[in-house]
């Protein structure tokens, strides 16, 4: 039985991943790490232990690992892409300084570490379509720079010190549970909220801009399955391409219109997010993840749209009660 610490448990991925892991390993065995001002609430607070864990404080991480006999750390602390451009110094402090702290604790206390990477590691010189696992990584955003550096540092700690580091490159993650948090791909979450509320959606990304996307249930499975995989079959570690679907704003708009024919969308392109989106791949080749640890998505665009619309309608109705 694993004992797991989630650093960043109240963030975009963390809240859902914490609950998913508690369902598998038991509530008492998954610690929700948080920073003051972002405390766990409701089911997240009540279903298992929580602890203040500031990723910039190595001693705090070590004390929590020792107290709860943690053997696996999910390091989810990061600023998302558009926010990181506004606060590059803080993005580096959290993304790289924080990762260094986690890896040092893992080295000393024999923990496995999962640190998510992103399609943001790729840049303008990367092949755009079916981007290979091993290719040029030359991002022009601070978010991407920290993710590339994180991949390299995680590999270094595995090769040099034997720390069991593992990672996936997440595409845009679409969820009905956690609201958008400042990512370039978040338009693909916002659009469903607008549709269910009967609002006209103002799209910040231009038509024809393709990006890789994934429904959150598949993303959570990937984060769990890679940590449960047999590492003897790994050729890669940090980080695996994983893929599910690729679309532009028109395609997702038309997917929603099949179920909500009166839905309307207009374009109000955000230059910053558009420039970031244009530097990222249109689609990823995830052959290595499929071959080395059996990765396979369960959702395509249509099945995701049906589920998102149904779940959001339920949530918005409940919110009005």
Automatic annotation (TrEMBL):
Location of the NAD-dependent epimerase/dehydratase domain: 4-242
InterPro entries, alphabetized: Epimerase_deHydtase, NAD(P)-bd_dom_sf, NAD(P)_epim/dehydratase
Pfam family, one: Epimerase
Family classification: Belongs to the NAD(P)-dependent epimerase/dehydratase family.
Protein's name in the database: NAD-dependent epimerase/dehydratase family protein
């Amino acid at each position: 039985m694993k004992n797991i610490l989630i650093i960043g448990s109240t963030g975009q991925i963390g809240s859902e991943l914490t609950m998913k892991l508690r369902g598998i390993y038991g509530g008492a065995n998954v610690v929700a790490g948080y920073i003051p001002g972002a405390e766990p609430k409701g089911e997240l607070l009540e279903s298992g232990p929580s602890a203040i864990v500031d990723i910039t404080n190595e001693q705090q991480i070590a004390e929590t690992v020792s107290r709860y006999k943690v053997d696996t750390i999910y390091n989810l602390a990061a600023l998302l892409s558009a926010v990181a451009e506004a606060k590059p110094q803080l993005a580096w402090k959290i993304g790289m300084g924080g990762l260094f702290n986690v890896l040092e604790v893992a080295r000393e206390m024999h923990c496995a570490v999962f640190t998510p990477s992103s399609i943001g590691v790729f840049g303008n010189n990367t092949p755009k379509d079916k981007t290979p696992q091993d290719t040029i990584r030359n991002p022009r955003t601070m978010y991407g720079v920290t993710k590339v550096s994180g991949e390299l540092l995680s590999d270094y700690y595995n090769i040099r010190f034997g720390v069991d580091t593992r990672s996936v490159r997440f595409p845009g993650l679409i969820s009905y549970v956690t609201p958008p948090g400042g990512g370039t791909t978040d338009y693909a979450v916002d659009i469903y909220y607008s549709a269910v509320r009967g609002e006209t959606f103002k799209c910040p990304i231009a038509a024809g801009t393709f990006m890789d996307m994934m429904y959150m249930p598949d993303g959570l499975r990937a984060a769990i399955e890679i940590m449960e995989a047999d590492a003897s079959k790994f050729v890669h570690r940090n980080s695996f391409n994983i893929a599910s679907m690729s679309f532009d704003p028109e395609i997702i708009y038309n997917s929603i219109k099949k179920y909500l024919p009166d839905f309307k969308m207009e374009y109000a392109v955000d230059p910053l997010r558009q420039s970031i989106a244009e530097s990222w791949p249109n689609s990823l080749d995830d052959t290595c993840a499929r071959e080395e640890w059996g990765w396979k998505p369960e959702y395509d665009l249509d099945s995701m749209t049906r589920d998102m619309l149904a779940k959001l309608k339920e949530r918005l109705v409940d919110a009005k009660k």
